[in-house]
Amino acid sequence: MLKPLRQGLPPLDPAAVSSAASCALPARYEAVREARRFTRDTLVQWDAGERFDDICLVVSELVTNALRHALPAEYGCADEYTASVRLHLMRWAERLVCGVRDPSHESPEPRDSDDFSAESGRGLFLVDSFADSWGWHPLAGTLEGKVVWAMFRLDTPA
Description:
By secondary structure, this protein is an alpha+beta fold. It has helices at residues 30-46, 52-69, 123-130; strands spanning 6-7, 19-25, 85-91, 95-102, 133-138, 146-153. α2 runs antiparallel to α3 (123-130).
């Protein structure tokens, strides 16, 4: 069963980040592959240990959801809309947060689906299963949209 959706920031001090990386992703489905490659390269440098595969899977799901559900309809994923989605990876001593920023103000909503043979609709269930916690928050100030984040405990200190 899916845990309740948490609205808010990950429970970590932003000033204590030991490493951070981010990349802009275009509004096309090939961006999921680009996000996975960026995440793999970053995690190798940070030595994410046993959580490597979990983090890569969750990043894929969050980016896919952003491309599929959070882009304005007039752009669509076939268009070359610039930097509509941004992936952020942040490392604390024994925690890692991946955040995906998109232009939508809509809350991410898990789908109710009893059909486990369906080809889509399970992304947030996978995020919930593989991340230690996850949630979302609206962007503040002049920034439009939201960030959906997932946090992982790491065995290897930074």
